[in-house]
Each structure stands twice: as structure tokens, then as C-alpha cells.
Amino acid sequence: MRLASTVVRRLRREEDHFRRVDMDLLQDLVERRRRDRQVAELRDRAGVVDDDVLDFLLEMGIDADSVSALSLYPVVQVAWADGRVVEEERQAVLEAATRMGCGPGTRGHELLADWLDREPSPLLESAWQQVQLAKSESAAVPA
To answer: pLDDT below 50 — which residues of the chain?
Structure first.
């Protein structure tokens, strides 16, 4: 009797363990597929084929819904040239964003507003440069 209950407890622990392992593996698979979809969408919108650049953009919080805001990075940089952004500069950048489809309520508009509120990290310039370089390289490849 005692041996049977010990075996049953051991089997239950093993079942619990493998159920947790299975759930972890399933969660990893779901996350990998979500990431793959994000990369594919970003590749289509950004016109960039380099996976390293796409991964870097995603790490920076720039996805398919916000990548168009990155094209205004040079303007944001000019707005910060004197160490602060005045309201007229802020409005001009956000109006330009709206004209190019990054209107209020979009992820791109939110990113731009954030970049105008707090001076962007130098990593953002690196992201912009990498996108420009990747686009020029892909345009230079003969069809």
C-alpha cells in the first residue's frame, strides 16, 4: 500500500514537471512565431531585409506600426540641436508626421512625441543610420 502511494506521488510529480516543461516550450514557440511575424511585417514596411537591423529596430521599440516615424529622426535631431525643443518645433514635427500617416493615436506619433519630450538616445541615431544603410544596400543589389 505504502509503495503504491509513493509510486503514485512520484508519477504525479513527473506529470506535473512535464506539463510545466510542455507549457514552457509552447510559450517559447508562440513567442518565436510572434517575433517572426513582427520581423516580417517590419521587413515589408521598412524595406529592409537585414535581420540584424530588423532585430535592432524591434529592440528599440520600433515596429511595423511605427517605423515610418524613424524617417523624421533627422528633423527631431535638428529640433534638439540647441539642447531643447520649443513648442513651435514640436508642432511642426508632429504636423509633418500627421501628413505622412503618423497622426495622433498612432504608435509612430507616440514615439515622435516621446523623442521630442526627451532627447533621444544615441542608439536611435544608430537605428536610423542602419536603416538608411540597409535600404541603400538593398537598392544597390541588381534584380
So the answer is: none
Q: In the chain, where are the structural domains located?
A: 2-138
- The grid coordinates of residue 130 equal 542602419
The grid cell for 1 is 500500500
Q: Is 13 helix (H, G, I), strand (E, B) or coil?
A: helix
For the chain, report the end-to-end CA distance as a whole number of angstroms.
Answer: 75
Q: pLDDT value at position 106?
A: 94
3-state SS, residue 128: helix
Beta carbons within 8 Å of 61's beta carbon, 6+ residues apart = 111
- pTM more than 0.85: no
* pLDDT of amino acid 5: 84
C-alpha to C-alpha distance for 27 and 35, rounded to whole angstroms:
12
Residues 82 and 53: their CA atoms lie apart, in Å, by: 30
Q: What's the pLDDT score for residue 107? A: 92
